[in-house]
Batch of 2 targets.
Target 1
Amino acid sequence: MPAPDNPSIHERLKRNRQLRAAASPRDHAKRRFAAAVREILDSLEASGASARFFDSETPRFVALAEELRAQPAEALEAKIEGYTGMENFHERSPIVGLSNPLAPPAEIELVPEEKAARGRVEFGKAFEGGPGLVHGGFLAALLDEALGMVTIYSGTSGMTGEYTIRYHAPTRIKVPLHFEARFDHREGRKLHVSADLWDGETRTVSAKGLFIAVDAAKFEGFHEARRERIGER
């Protein structure tokens, strides 16, 4: 297994960034479509539109969903290095996925020289818990995603084993937030990571995680089980 500072890991991160940026016209179109759905989700709950409006529009959305299901994506080529089934994570993730309208989406950049990741996010009204505040479960999911990313500095990838989160202050919706995750150390298969989220100069959330190193064969098993269960990619 390569050491955390092995140049091959840094090169892999560089190639992955380049490949994510080189999206196809269809990828860009799908991202624009997802952004439009995101706007609907942000406006829906607070809308005062009439029952007639919603009743008239619902069949159109049902038909659109059926049309999308009738056009499944082809199997992905392994263009981005990583474990089987994770090649398009930057598109499908519910946190960073550019083609997933459930995602805010967060922007996360790995910082190899610091064994860290830094990111930005703004949560819309669809993520509101308390009045004007982000629901704490989404904040936990955000930092879990960032913590998972920094496990790469261990020389492998990891999955959440144990996760402790502390809420220091309320986190507001509709404002720019920034966060950082760090790879701390490794003990056998145990990967120790930590993270913080800020609203301006105020730290609102901190987290510590114990992730478990997972090899490629495990991810291949997950991928095959997914295909058998829902018949996609």
Target 2
Amino acid sequence: MERLYAPWRMEYIKTGELDRAGCFICNKLNAPLEKDRDNLLLYRGSYTVTMLNLYPYTNGHAMVAPIRHIANYEELSVEEVLESKKITDMLIIIMKKTMSAQGFNVGYNLGRVAGAGCDTHIHLHIVPRWNGDTNFMAIFSETKVISEGLEKTYDNLKNEIEKYVNDHF
């Protein structure tokens, strides 16, 4: 059995940076639209927002969150759940096409003890994976190699999302 370890993220989780700065999702949502690229916001739906993770496990690590500031999974509305599913499907299709992703980790970290860096605004993670995407760097030097800059990944995905939305939504 292979395991993906991300020990470099523990300091980020322990510091509570997101709590001190307010809700990072709401902060990004409330910023002017012209800041979407700076804030890595890929798509604003009717009920959800999609963004790249500023602290990714792998290239393309994205998150889908309800626009509404809620913490609990069971409080999600049917509309929020359905739009999250639709966006997740879209991201998987696009990441397979543009990034040649071979697999995905998709899920929620519900609560701080479950690994949620921000446990006050629920969000779904979509993490593209490739055969052999773990290597010695993470094991020996606690360093994760991200092979493409966030801005480049953002631009590639944003372009494909716009095309997909125009064709399918």
